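Box 3.1 A note on notation
Throughout this textbook, protein chains are presented in two layers. The first layer is the amino acid sequence; the second is a token string describing backbone geometry. Keep the layers aligned when reading.
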Amino acid sequence: MWTAWESCVATRPSTLTTGDGLKTICAQSRDACGNLSTETCDDITLDTTAPSAPTITINAGASCTNSLAVTLSLSATGAAEMRVRNYLGTWGAWEAYANSKPWTLPSGDGTKTVCAQYRDACGNMSAEVCDSITLDTVAPSAATISINGGASCATSTSITLTLSATGASEMHLRNDPGSYGLWEAYATSKPWTLPSGDGTK
């Protein structure tokens, strides 16, 4: 519906109809004698909705890492750009939206948190989202192994290992020479079979 005729000006505020989507505004002018110009129109897209379902995960959701270099998995429906920061740090520059990004954690072992924010082509911003991971660069210490409680000899290939390592969560073992078995949960005791044949094992 046309508005009432008004004085011609170079700029004029106008209110778009509600609801996101393509909006078209048309104008027509007339002179003092009532001669009408051709109607002219222009389009603009109204977008008031921020990117939705924003997420970030570090190293595919791993609970810990032994490296400062990690990979971020990023997602937000409707995003055109994103920015990333270490928690309480300064935001990086806005960059093109991508599902994956290499990232460097701050140094020093402990819990590290990385945050992301997304925006669409119209500048609508999502909420900030974060994920955490534990940085642990210190190897288990004071590792020891003893056979049959430290005995100097055995009469059977079936023996018991006593194991210890501060900070360990997994272990793997091998006869020497030989190949390591699979990693398994750390334990302080484990039954083991020596290779056959008398001699030092």
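The mean pLDDT is 95. The chain has no helices and 15 strands.
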